[in-house]
Specification:
alpha/beta, TIM Barrel, 11 helices, 16% strand, binds ligand PBG
Length: 326
């Protein structure tokens, strides 16, 4: 049967009707807010390319935790900027490193679910995600040993989930065995499995002070056009024992999110990255788009594509929107 007996508009006649037939709903329990701590700060710092994103000094975290929970967000992804960088990124695995201190503080101040980003680019003086070999390329296997130390130090500080983002081969197996050996068998791993070599990470590097000094990340992050390769990356991470898989960025890679969620029985996380956020912010600041609607639409699209978990700089605003505007 077709028009005029069938009229699609019947189910669009009121907000209640549209809500009744909604196929996709967002809920703040699926949001994760990335947060940044900088050991060099005594006052919070803002970054021009990431309006609304604040980097906190280590002494300011009590208020942050409360504010995040008050907004209705349950989970954070923690990043740190250390007070010294060196070739081996040693602050990344120091017991008194910036992120370990931040995690301990958040743990004491709140019952937020704490996810620790595990990478070295914020901690190395060269800005790469691992240690370099004599030719200046990232040495995969030497880097894995350091990732093991970072994971154990983050778990010891109180992280619930370790999220390795460096795209080294074998990183999940290496981290899983180190965590288990140290008695952290209940600490989960969220694998940045399909992390593309994306220009959308630009503003993040301003916030996290993590741009590579020389070269780029094309030697370890994935080529943007490769869908089957993304599935291989996920396959390996699942085989190595990760608990959650991630696709990153999110909005420009909805097809990858869909394919991952169709083919793997693990929770799928999607990271709406800094450039995605900054583009919405910039257009909104010019009055060219309705920020609130574009924010919610961008998140809804990520959910519709199959994401179970959405990491977004909009987590607090979106959670507030869901609570107040429904
Ligand atoms: C660290 C890391 C990056 C992001 C998350 N973890 C930057 C990068 O790979 O250069 C990007 C997040 C964002 O853009 O919001 N490796």
């Amino acid at each position: 049967m077709y028009y005029p007996q069938v009229r699609m508009r019947r189910l669009r006649t009121s907000q209640k009707m549209r809500d009744l037939v909604a196929e996709t709903r967002l809920d703040s329990s699926e949001f994760v807010l990335p947060i940044f701590f900088d050991a060099n700060l005594s006052e919070p710092r803002t970054t021009d390319s990431m309006p609304g994103v604040v980097t906190y000094p280590l002494s300011g975290y009590m208020d942050v935790a409360r504010e995040i929970q008050d907004a209705g967000v349950n989970a954070v992804l923690v990043f740190g900027v250390p007070d010294h960088k060196d070739a081996k990124g040693s602050d990344a695995y120091s017991e008194d490193g910036v992120v370990q201190k931040a995690i301990r503080g958040l743990r004491a101040a709140s019952d937020l679910l704490i996810i620790a980003d595990l990478c070295m680019c914020e901690y190395t003086d060269h800005g790469h995600c691992g240690v370099l070999d004599v030719d200046g390329a990232v040495d995969n296997d030497k880097t894995l040993e350091l990732y093991q130390k970072i994971a154990v130090s983050q778990a010891a500080a109180g992280a619930d989930i370790i999220a390795p983002s460096g795209m080294m081969d074998g990183q999940i197996a290496a981290i899983r065995s180190a965590l288990d050996e140290a008695g952290f068998e209940d600490v989960a791993i969220m694998a940045y499995s399909a992390k593309f070599y994306s220009a959308f990470y630009g503003p993040f590097r301003d916030v996290a002070c993590s741009a590579p000094g020389k070269g780029n990340r094309a030697g370890y992050q994935m080529p943007c056009g490769n869908r089957r390769e993304a599935m291989r990356e996920i396959d390996m991470d699942v085989a190595e024992g990760c608990d959650i898989i991630m696709v990153k960025p999110a909005g420009p890679y909805l097809d990858i999110i869909r394919e991952a969620s169709d083919n793997y029985p693990l929770p799928v996380a999607a990271y709406q990255v800094s450039g995605e956020y900054a583009m919405i912010k910039a257009a909104a600041a010019n009055g060219w788009i309705d920020e609130e609607r574009v924010m919610m639409e961008s998140l809804l699209a990520i959910k519709r594509a199959g994401a179970d978990i959405i990491i977004t700089y909009y987590a607090k605003e979106a959670a507030r929107y869901l609570r107040e505007r429904r």
